[in-house]
Amino acid sequence: MTVASDGTIWVTDSSNSKVYDVTTAGGVTPYPIAGGGGPQFIAGGPSGQVAFSNPTSTPQQIALLSPGGTPKTIARPIPADPFGVAFGADGAYWVAMFAGNRLDRVTTDGTLTSLTGFPVVSGQGPREITAGPGNTLWTTLDNPGDSTKSKIARVTGVTGPTGGGGSTAPGDTTPPTVNGAGLSRTSLPAGTAKLTLRFGLSEAGTAKVALSRRAGGRRRGKACVAPRRSLRRAPACTRLISVRTVTKAVAIGGNAIALSTRTLPAGAYRVTLTVTDAAGNRAPALTRSFTVAKRR
Description:
CATH architecture of the largest domain: 7 Propeller
Shape: elongated
Structural class: mainly beta
Mean pLDDT: 87
Strand content: over 45%
Number of domains: 2
Low-confidence stretches: 161-170
Largest sheet: 6 strands, mixed
CATH class of the largest domain: Mainly Beta
CATH superfamily of the largest domain: YVTN repeat-like/Quinoprotein amine dehydrogenase
């Protein structure tokens, strides 16, 4: 499954040779795969487009698909065996080619180049892949015959065409989509150990969670400042006092960040979530509130 940039959810159905576009309201649009096979891994790109792998088709395929369109298959070198798919910070899709022991880079218009140079071990190759922070990709080098030899590889400098040839893909300018953000509790007694912020993401990135306490204040110009005698007749306002900030790498799909609340005194609090992807695009900040009550 993946979440596209337009907020719809895409699901591959290997058993029935279909890909489904699912809206958050429950609408489902099936896309049959001509030639059959079993589409497996899928990743979202710009303008609602997705790319998916089809390792059981004949021949094995990588395909691009946009809402309302038909899958566009991409010619690729042999051997192949395409599995994991990720959308990189360079604005292109990256597909793990297990049998080819390489990564294939596919631009949004279908241009393919390859990245080789992984260790040559019989029966081993890239299978799972994800985009990481700092213009990186992370891929497993699976060895089904001897799992003790399996490895994880990091690819750095994912900012342009790799492997020679091909056109430069446009940079990623689409901010992450944050959905379903909520707190595990909105009211808790003082001394409670933790609170959990859960949310979904359309792509991997870095989340910053700022915890602030609400406090009374007085208006001074455009600012809300701490009360003082000289401002006793100024309009009342609510100011935010920073408590702490948590920064964490987050993945596509569901995420959970625990916030320590044991030492918080009674009062009203605000949680502000901002997510930035590997290309520096920042999602609009989301805020959620909770209160800490005095113990009786």
